[in-house]
Amino acid sequence: MSDQPAWPDDFRAGFACIVGRPNAGKSTLTNAMVGQKVAITSDRPETTRRVIRAIVNRDHGQIILVDTPGLHRPRTLLGERLNDMVRDSLAGVDVVVMCLPADEAIGPGDRFLLDLVSQMNVPIIAAVTKTDRVGRDDLAAHLVEVSEMAPFVDVVPVSATIGEQVDVLAEVVLDQMPDSPPLYPRDAISDESEETLISELIREAALEGLHAELPHSLAVTVEEMLDEQPAKGDPDQRPILRVHASLHVERDSQKGIIIGKGAARLKRIKRDARKGIEPLLGARVILDLHVRVAKDWQRDPKLLGRLGF
Ligand SMILES: Nc1nc2c(ncn2[C@@H]2O[C@H](COP(=O)(O)OP(=O)(O)OP(=O)(O)O)[C@@H](O)[C@H]2O)c(=O)[nH]1
């Protein structure tokens, strides 16, 4: 056994915060950098409600990523808390990565966010996301426009879905990190509890294909996780984890939407969520889902607390 530390002398580690307006590609980029699904992606804006930390491990460095919800004007208590969460997550980070989608013009929302982030006195890297959606000329023009927006330490074009330039971005982020030993175990990818990751996966499955207002009205809590033995003679002898979870909605009509005709939607939610959860836990999962109506939970501080906000 050697008593040499298990990381090189020039190891860097620190915190990076990914910001960007709704739908800018923050969660997808987080997952691509980690190389595994840890954050929730959705094609509906503002679905990321939790500030999820993910951990990017490289041979010579470790980036602790903080994924922020999109900034928006507060409308409900939940909205105000969201904005507080964004500001909190910006405090104490070593570098901010600002996502600006290549296929959309820079707008007032981006400038608002940039102003906010610029007050934090940390280096800002611009990640021009979704580059696979535009041609070379448009991308070049967009990159120039972004460079002129602010004194970014770097502007990195990246496509998280096809994995282009993701490693380059990680290197540029690491360049801004202090010399430091690893801050988390080097095989960790997230400091979120299993319960949180599971409830996010259920929430994502439940929101699939739904419209407008429901994302803000749905919260998921994991009530209980129980180990079970497979039945004798069951051809699948993997260990079983039974997960009891509640889906909280605000109205009876929303309950109906989630459950669907003949409970068909609920069945699909179970199936889709299980697909994400089983590889995460390395176990066979049985999901018991209960849909509950909690009127105005977004405005009830007690209920918000119980739901983890
Ligand atoms: N073509 C393409 N689509 C992308 C890329 N990155 C993200 N998307 C898509 O853009 C949409 C939004 O991506 P997200 O990662 O959920 O965006 P976000 O910024 O986390 O969104 P909020 O949670 O609303 O703040 C999803 O439909 C993604 O699949 C990319 O590199 N290329």
TrEMBL record:
- Every KH type-2 domain range: 210-295
Region G5, annotated ranges: 158-160
Q: One GO biological process from the UniProt record?
A: ribosomal small subunit assembly
Q: Which PROSITE patterns match?
A: G_ERA, KH_TYPE_2
Q: Which GO terms describe its molecular function?
A: GTP binding; GTPase activity; ribosomal small subunit binding; small ribosomal subunit rRNA binding
User: Which parts of the sequence bind GTP?
Assistant: 20-27, 67-71, 129-132
- Gene Ontology CC terms: cytosol; plasma membrane
G2, as annotated region: 46-50
Q: Does the keyword Amino-acid biosynthesis apply?
A: no
Establish whether keyword Nucleotide-binding is in the entry. yes
G3, as annotated region: 67-70
Instruction: Please state which protein family the record places this protein in.
Output: Belongs to the TRAFAC class TrmE-Era-EngA-EngB-Septin-like GTPase superfamily. Era GTPase family.
Return the protein name.
GTPase Era
| Species for this entry | Ancrocorticia populi
This protein's gene is called era
